[in-house]
Amino acid sequence: MSAGSNAALLSAMLQAQAGAAGQGQLQAGADKSIGALGTQYPIARGDISTGATQGLGALGEGFTSAQGALAGGRDLSLEALRGGYDTARGDLTGQYGTAREDIGAGISGFDPYARAGVSASDARLQALGLAPSDGGAAYGGFQQSPGYQFRVNQALDQINRQGATGGGGFGGNILAALSDRAGGLAAQDFQQYLDNLTGVSNAGQQAAGSQLQGRTAQGNLSATLGNNLGNLASEYGRGQANAYDAYGTRGADLTSNYGANRAGIYGTQGRDLAGLADT
Description:
Helix 4 (about 145-165) runs antiparallel to helix 5. The longest helix has about 110 residues, at about 5-110. By secondary structure, this protein is mainly alpha-helical.
C-alpha cells in the first residue's frame, strides 16, 4: 500500500472516531436534558396545582366573607326598618290616645247640660200632657218653683190683709178671692215655666249635639289612625321586600362572579398543565 493510501485511511479512521465521540456527547447531553425535564416536570406540575388550589382557597374565603357582609347588611337594614316602624307606630298611637282623651274630656263636660236638657224635655212634655205623668207630677216642679211660690204668698198675704181690714175674716168671699188669685197666677206663670223648660231643653240639645260632634271626631281619629297604621305597615313591608330583594340580587351576582372566577382558575390551570406537557 502506498503512502498516499495509508494517509487517506488514517484520515478516515480519525474522522470516524471524532463522529462517534460527538454522537456520544450529543446523546449524553440529550440524556441530561431528559433527566432534568423529568425532574422539573413534577415540580412544575405541583407548583401549578398548588397555585390553583391556593387561588381557589382565597376565592372561597373572599366569597364566604362577602356573603357574611351581605347578610349583615341585610339584617342591619331590617333592624333599622323595624326600629323605625315601632317608633312611628308608638308616636301615632300615643298621639291618638292623647287626642281621644282630650275629646272625651270635652264630651264629659257637656254631660250635666245634656242630662238637664233631658229632664227639662220630659217635664215639659208631661206638663203639656204629651207624656205620661204620675198624677200631678207634671206640675210639681212649677208649683215648687221659688218665683211662683213667692208671688202666690204675696197675693195671699194681700188678700188676707184686705179681709182682716174689712172684718170679713175668712168667709166665702175671701176664699173665692184666694182661689181666683191663685188660679190666675198659675195661668200667668205656667207659660213662663214652659219657656224656662224649653230653654233648658234646647241647651241640652245643643250639648248633645256638641257631644255628637266630639264622638264623630273620635270616630274620625280612629279612622285616621287606621289609615296611618295601614300606610305605615305597607311602607314597612315594602322596605323589608326591598332589603331582601337587594340581598338576593347582590347574592346572585356574588355567586355568579364566584363561579366565573373558579372556572377561570381551573381554565388557567388546565392551560398551564397542557403547555407543560407539550414542553
